[in-house]
Amino acid sequence: MNRTWNKKVSIVMSTALAISVLAACSSNKPAVTSSTTPSASQTDAAKQAPLVMDWLGYNSYGQPDPESYVVKYVQDKFNVKFNFWYIDNQKWDDNLNVKLAAGEMPDVLRIANKANIARYVTQGILAPISEDTFRKFAPNYAKFLDTYYKEAWDGVKYDGKIYAIPTTNLNASYPTDVIWREDWLKNVGITKVPETLQEYETALYKFRDEDPDKNGKKDTNGLSDYALPNILGAFGYPGIMNFKDAAKGVSAKAIPFTLKDGKVVFAPIQPEMKDALALLQKWYKDGIISPEFVTGENTGGYWADSQAFYNGKIGLTGISMFYHWRNELNPDNPADKGGGQWVAFKQAQPNGTIAFGKPAVGPKGKSGVEQWDTSSPPVGITTKAAKDPKKLETLLKMIDLSVTDNEYFNTISYGAPGVDWKMENGKFTYMTITDTAADATKKGKGVLGALVQFDPFLKKADPFTYQYGDKVIDKTKGYKPLFVPTTDAFTKNSATLSKLTAETYFKIITGEASLDSFDDYVKKFKANGGDEVEKAANDAYNKMIGK
Prior knowledge:
By secondary structure, the protein is α/β, with parallel strands linked by helices. It has helices at residues 16-21, 40-46, 69-78, 92-101, 117-122, 131-137, 139-148, 182-187, 197-209, 228-232, 243-247, 251-254, 271-285, 307-310, 340-348, 389-401, 406-414, 437-442, 455-461, 463-472, 488-510, 517-545, and strands at residues 51-56, 80-84, 108-110, 157-158, 161-162, 165-168, 178-181, 221-223, 257-260, 263-266, 314-318, 354-356, 369-370, 375-381, 421-424, 427-430, 478-479. A 5-stranded mixed β-sheet has the order 2-1-3-14-6. Strands 8-11-7-12 form a 4-stranded mixed β-sheet. The chain has a two-stranded antiparallel sheet with strand order 4-5. A hairpin with a 2-residue loop joins strand 9 (257-260) and strand 10. It is globular, with a radius of gyration of 25 Å.
């Protein structure tokens, strides 16, 4: 799950949501600037009948207004008329499936879950996109993907062929964070933020024993559930990425896949996880892990909140993103108060300080925390649209312009220049940041970019935030998710396997089950569908990449 969609936008350029949520608050239509005046070739094209495209290549938080500045701007630029499909974003799959089942198709289709690509292909909905065609009409975007997001290509393939436009998520190029109570470290005599597993253990035992909050009571623990994947990662790919989600039955977090020797395997049943659980069982018995970790350190509100950390119960947390805990203020933004979680922490602990840490390095040099999927929902061209090659050509040209022309990118993303955004002396200012997602979509913002993002333009608009992220996060320390197309075997067995995994891990950590029960768990996992799912997953993965 891409949690960026759920957070309150505190920076202008986080991800595609930061584009979709921002909307124009002025009804004034700006004059078209000289850079938007049609060229001679465009004027000739305008004499021809416009190309009509049925468009569903956007996050449908509202109904786009065909008379909006952004829509007219793009239509004039490419001599296209867009017929916008609207599917309620909250009921996307149900409502879209009804139309598709009836044989109705748009030309351009957002694929909300890329696991559906295989199904759409076999149902005759998605058309293949020739790699030569892609590179001919979107050469700059293809080069961007090749250079920075090579893995995004695999996620849009079926049987080795490309069936959608890969889209990217700049924020997901940063692993999740590791947050320490810096003042606690100093209070127990530690001046260096821990890095190795042994240094972690030393600090966490001191948090239990040496009154780090100086209240005269022995009422603190080292960590709770949000830091557990960090510890698992010191032994290998974490068997559970999020203990709270795993307890709820979220299979992607409870039974993640990884690659081992080129084969798709389940991470939680790997032998190195037994070693990790042995350590966690010891820590729990010794009072290093909060006894409340089973119910979770987040007790309500926004998912990235850690009430246990805010309330001074633990000294180590994680699982969120760098911008959540940003504790430096943007000097160019007088209203900036910092990251939302840092603000909440300071409200609860006015004298408390934090430090960004590094994932624990284990006995064999393994280290890492969860990293989100660097690709966002892709956009495909349907078999209906494929009957007219001009539609794919135009879509690709629109995409390529969005990564070569900064003003075009800003306009399709943020609205009318001079009304919704401005660029002065090289500094980008967003002028209507408080508008709703529905209003943004109505004004055409984030509607016609086919969900494509371009890192250099995002960083140019918000250099402070990304420079901060580069400073506090080690980008090499993330365990990236492995995308495997959904199979019938996974659908049939995932709930049982997720429940079995979560229960086993919790019981071993708390001592309710012995460490040796891990071996029984692995056998039961395999016998209750694990082997069947793993075989199907390998077949699907290999078919996806054309192996």
